């Protein structure tokens, strides 16, 4: 079913990803209606409509759904049950099943394992005793990750030996978790695809990602040759996942480039920080192709517009360097209009093309 221009897209979540989706949608002639619990949100600044409401407010969510023509979401830490309930009123793309899997690291790992992914050794952990048993199976060094709500390095603790078990368990708040064995790798990268309602898939060049303190610092294309050598296998997994989920929209998978081949890290059922370079660096950005996909429009070309591009996140006070950034004529600055810079908070990004 095609949702034509002049229709209204409902976006659940009001962060910077919703902001950039709304900008891309406006260029195609759509209006956007944002639903978010925040007192003020970056996405609401650029959308025609905004409803402030809690995600567990069923009546408000229903009124929101009835006011739009198609629904999508901009991040995965939204309770899946309220989103799934909206399918009674409007189509939700990507479907809530993808949201539910991506929210839980154990479900995610089990799902991709069945599809033939190469993953780090892992085990579920629900207690300190479970953790000690998992260490015996997985080994150390390892990393303990909460099953839910962890991002940008949050909800994680590293273990060098079994002696770190109790402190790691305390550090994550004694919450259900998984223990992952360390992977020997040289590079991190992401594969981003868009899948249309007709099953057609397009993909962007793999981006090489570099993290600082658990937060993405830069994404660069073209990626290192060792990443490019593993990209086809990683892309094939992304396509299998999308097909298994009957996925519509942009899907992101993060990998480690390891000696034996790409090791799956995690997936995000949405547009992604590591794809921000596509706004200026590709013929069609991840945001525009997400809108095209969920609205049933033909997907755009993902071809590079220049020899390469690098996106750098602006974290905390780095956004105050906007003057120096704009002094570089190659710089494309994106500020998210967040009022209060905090350490670790993504305030914007800058992309250099060519």
Question: Can you put this structure into words, describing what you see?
Answer:
By secondary structure, the chain is of the alpha+beta class. It has three domains: 8-92, Rossmann fold, CATH 3.40.50.20; 121-181, 2-Layer Sandwich (Dna Ligase, domain 1); 185-353, ATP-grasp fold, B domain (D-amino Acid Aminotransferase, Chain A, domain 1). It is built from twelve helices and 17 strands. It has helices at residues 16-27, 58-66, 80-85, 96-103, 105-114, 128-138, 165-171, 225-228, 231-244, 278-281, 286-294, 322-326; strands spanning 8-12, 31-36, 49-52, 70-73, 122-125, 142-146, 156-159, 177-181, 185-195, 201-203, 207-212, 215-221, 249-258, 261-268, 309-315, 331-335, 346-353. The longest helix has 14 residues, at 231-244.
């Amino acid at each position: 079913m095609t949702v034509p221009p002049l229709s209204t897209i409902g976006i659940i979540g009001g962060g910077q990803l919703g902001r950039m989706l709304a900008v891309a949608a406006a260029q195609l002639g759509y209006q956007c209606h944002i639903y978010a619990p925040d007192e003020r949100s970056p996405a609401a600044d650029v959308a025609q409509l905004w409803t402030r409401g809690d995600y567990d407010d069923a009546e408000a969510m229903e009124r929101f759904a009835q006011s739009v023509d198609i629904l999508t979401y901009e991040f995965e830490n939204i309770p899946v049950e309220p989103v799934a309930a909206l399918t009674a009123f409007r189509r939700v793309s990507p479907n809530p099943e993808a949201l539910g899997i991506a929210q839980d690291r154990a479900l995610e790992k089990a799902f991709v394992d069945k599809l033939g992914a190469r993953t780090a050794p892992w085990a579920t952990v629900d207690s300190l005793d479970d953790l000690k048993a998992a260490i015996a199976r997985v080994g150390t060094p390892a990393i303990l990750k909460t099953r839910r709500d962890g991002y940008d390095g949050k909800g994680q603790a590293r273990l060098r030996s079994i002696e770190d078990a109790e402190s790691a368990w305390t550090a994550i708040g004694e919450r259900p978790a998984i223990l992952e064995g360390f992977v020997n790798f040289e590079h991190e990268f992401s594969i981003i695809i868009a899948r249309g309602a007709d099953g057609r898939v397009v993909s962007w060049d793999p981006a090489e990602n570099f993290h600082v303190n658990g937060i993405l610092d830069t994404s660069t294309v073209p990626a290192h040759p060792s990443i490019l050598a593993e990209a086809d296998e990683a892309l094939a997994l992304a396509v299998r996942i999308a097909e298994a989920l009957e996925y519509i929209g942009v899907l992101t998978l993060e990998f480690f480039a390891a000696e034996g081949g790409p090791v799956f890290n995690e997936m995000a059922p949405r547009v992604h920080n590591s794809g921000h370079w596509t706004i200026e660096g590709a013929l069609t950005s991840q945001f525009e192709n997400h809108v095209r996909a969920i609205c049933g429009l033909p997907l755009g070309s993902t071809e590079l517009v220049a020899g390469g591009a690098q996106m750098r996140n602006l974290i905390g006070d780095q956004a105050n360097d906007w003057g120096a950034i704009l002094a570089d004529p190659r710089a494309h600055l994106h500020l998210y209009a967040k009022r209060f810079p905090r350490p670790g908070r993504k305030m914007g990004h800058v992309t250099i093309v060519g």
